[in-house]
Amino acid sequence: MFPPGQSSPPYPMTPHQIDFSFKGRYYKTGNITAATKQVWFVLHGYAQLAQHFIRKFAVLEEHNICVIAPEGLSRFYLEPLSNRMQTGDSRVGATWMTKEDRQTDIDNYITYLNALYRQEITQTNIPVTVLGFSQGAATASRWVADGQVNLDRFILWAGILPPDMDFEAGREALRNKETYMVYGTEDPYLNDSRFTELDLLSNRLGIYPQRIVFKGQHEIHAPTLLRFI
Fold first, then answer.
1. What does the pLDDT profile of the chain (229 residues) look like in tens digits?
2. Rounded-to-integer distance, Cα 79 and Cα 85, Å
3. Domains of the chain
4. Which of 148, 128, 154 lies closest to 36, judged by CA?
């Protein structure tokens, strides 16, 4: 413990970093074959897991669309320890980042997503869609702006662009690409100020996402997915 009245050590604390190999988990529906019509990379929201999130896209599989769901590299228990001890609820969720050491998390997940893309996409003639849901919308935006993924369509679903992304690189990466903003009429996380922010950030990127609205809340809506077939 520190002396009374002192909340930090009397000497400077300098953060350090180290590079090392890291494994990331993802899920996929089917395999990419000559019959595959599209490939979708779908990035989940805060506190979700890829294995559950990918099930929301099952409607696409019967249309020869391969769906790939990466997972955030940080996992945590959804309930605090005291609740878990009483109820036995040990559910786990994942997140793409927090405010702590934020840039390192961003660098790590972009490296991970680029490696996943290179491993899965070996044919250049298959149309690629990148969809980011909620927190995953910011993640998908930064990944696309990195310029390593060759995509045809970009979908922000129940989430908006992050204000700290690389807009110059993103403008080039999204040039002449299909862009969409999809959300439910009762989404509690979206309001007029958020849409105003989206418009401002979209203008900085030089894109004008087509808005598609469905009757629902903060969710993936299967009938709306079919509009992208």
1. 556 666 666 677 888 999 999 999 999 998 899 999 999 999 999 999 999 999 999 999 999 999 999 999 999 898 888 888 888 888 899 999 999 999 999 999 999 999 999 999 998 799 999 999 999 999 999 999 999 999 999 999 999 999 999 999 999 999 999 999 999 999 999 999 999 999 999 999 999 999 999 999 999 999 999 999 8
2. 10
3. 34-228 (3.40.50.1820)
4. 128
